[in-house]
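Weekly puzzle thread! Below is a chain. First person to post its structure in token form gets bragging rights.
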Amino acid sequence: MKKILISGASGFIGKRLAKMFLSKGYFVTGLGTSGVHPYSAAFENFEWIRADTAVEGKWQNAVAGADIIINLAGRNIFHYWTKKYKKAIYDSRILTTRHIVKAMEKTKSQTFLTASAVGIYGDCKDDLLTEKKLPGNDFLAEVCVNWEKEGLKAREKGARVSVMRFGVVLGDGGALSMMTPVFKLFAGGPLGNGRHWFPWVHVRDLEKAVGFVVGNKELEGVFNVTGPTPVRQKQFARALGRVLGRPAFMPAPSFWVKLFMGELGRSLLQSQRAIPKKLLDSGYTFSFPTVESSLKDIFRK
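Winning reply:
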């Protein structure tokens, strides 16, 4: 039985990936700061280790025994960015990745998938962004650059390394759970003028893409994990409004977003027209290729 270690396994994406690999017969070890994990009682082949992975500790012993390591740990960015919180965003990602790589076995052939984000590109207006695009220079771009740099060091341990640059993940939870209540109250609409590009991906395609990369041993390097049909933010808002049966004509003005959300607000107004070129070139087929099909699936119940 192959062993998978998932850092951040109690998060929105981590729980879904853990469940997917458990259903495939893997033994899954989850890492995170939660006291308990619901899968501990539900699955015999699930082990939960409570740990602050930004700090070295006994939890690193589990790294050496894993065949596959999926690194998702990181503080939620949807929080007001004080100087202290920005440090937590940075440390939770960079230090966790550094500690995982340090604990990897040089004599063991391991597969390492480490998360990143399309925020690495910064504000790119209407440019079409493939994995070859150079990084931006804002805070999130800096975090992603250093996050990826630490992850790619696993190659020195002989690991097969893939960097997964996620777009905004759509599903029953995550960012969508914060947007939906506003629309249901008839107060939804685009951010700013809505002309900036909105990088998105259905959570089930994210799961499937991770499984695709894990299962194809020739695949490695950087992957944009975004939907194949880019949309502008106002198009996304209209699609969400249609699916919910609500209007989407009440924009949040840019000055309001920046004033009340600070540096986070400015990052939400950035434009990233990212496409998953490397996944598509590798033969991956999306189950939900459009925003409309994704939202209809998520809200079909």
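Puzzle host: Confirmed. Bonus trivia for everyone else. The first helix runs from residue 12 to 23.
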